[in-house]
Amino acid sequence: MSPIIIAVLITAGSCGGLLLTVLLRHRLPLHHEEEATRDLLKIATGMLATLVALILGLLVSSAKSTFDTATAEVTQSGAQIITLNRTLASYGPEAQPVRVLLQRSLAANIDRLWSGRQAHVIAIASVDASATNDLADAIRRLAPQNDAQKDLQAKAEAQMASLAEGRWLFYEQMQNPLPPVFLIVLGFWLIQLFIGLGLIAPRNSTSVIAMLTCALSMSAAVFLILEMNHPLDGLIKVSSAPLEAALAVISK
Questions:
Q1: In 3-state terms, what secondary structure has residue 201?
Q2: d(C-alpha 22, C-alpha 15), whole Å
Q3: What is the mean pLDDT of each run of 10 residues along the chain (252 residues)?
Q4: Where are the beta strands (DSSP E) in 203-246?
Q5: Which residue from 27, 117, 170, 201 has the highest number of Cβ atoms inside 10 Å of its Cβ?
């Protein structure tokens, strides 16, 4: 289920619980409006609000960390590609076909991830792995003519292995979905929170608008958490600038 749909469902549940409570509150027996009952509701609602705020804060921090890690790894990948290209350039004209293959592979990878088309990360990783294997095979097929070229070939193979390992680690780290049960529990807490607020809120339009705004804000926080947990797809993606800069450098 997409983050937008999940956020809409949480908004609908929170707003529905709130509005239903506000509309039906006058049907409660009078003793439910006693001061002691209202005080108890305030305490219970405060506990729920604290719990929800704590969980949302921790999840936003975790999702931002995932997003920052993806950004750092994309930047590192760009630097590794530039370094590999320089090693191949130092090898000599014999490595030019490998450099061209590296350029094409990088351009295709940028297009797959940042073209605007929705694609599954596993499928992208599979295609990228195939391209990486082709590059590694092309480097191994080089026939060095002297000791300097042998050293450069070995260096290029080590750099290619490091790049491949980093990419696989990157794709594996991006597979970090939140458990559905966790989202269900969080949604239940939010609905309970707004039901409690509806029971103690003043009966006027200002308080209802304020609480609806809070419900939208909570749902937006959940949306951001889900989006940043998947930095390679969705509406919020890591920037392609480091890889585009690397492509510009190795294309010269």
A1: coil
A2: 10
A3: 84 84 74 76 87 88 87 89 91 90 87 67 67 85 88 91 81 72 86 84 81 88 87 81 90 81
A4: none
A5: 170
pLDDT in tens, 43-87: 888 888 898 888 888 888 888 888 888 888 889 889 999 999 999
Give DSSP secondary structure letters for 129-160.
HHHHHHHHHHHHT----SHHHHHHHHHHHHHH
Give residue for tokens 């705004």.
213
Residue type, 59: L
The answer to whether 239 touches 74, Cβ cutoff 8 Å, is yes
What residues contact residue 29 under an 8 Å CB cut-off, 6+ apart? none
Count how many residues are written for the chain.
Answer: 252
Distance CA 225, CA 134 (A): 36
Q: How far is CA 162 from CA 50, 132, 136, in A?
A: 45, 11, 11
Q: What are phi and psi of 51, to 5 degrees?
A: -65, -45
Distance from C-alpha of 131 to C-alpha of 73, rounded to nearest angstrom: 19
* 52 phi/psi in degrees, rounded to 5: -65, -45
Residue type, 15: C
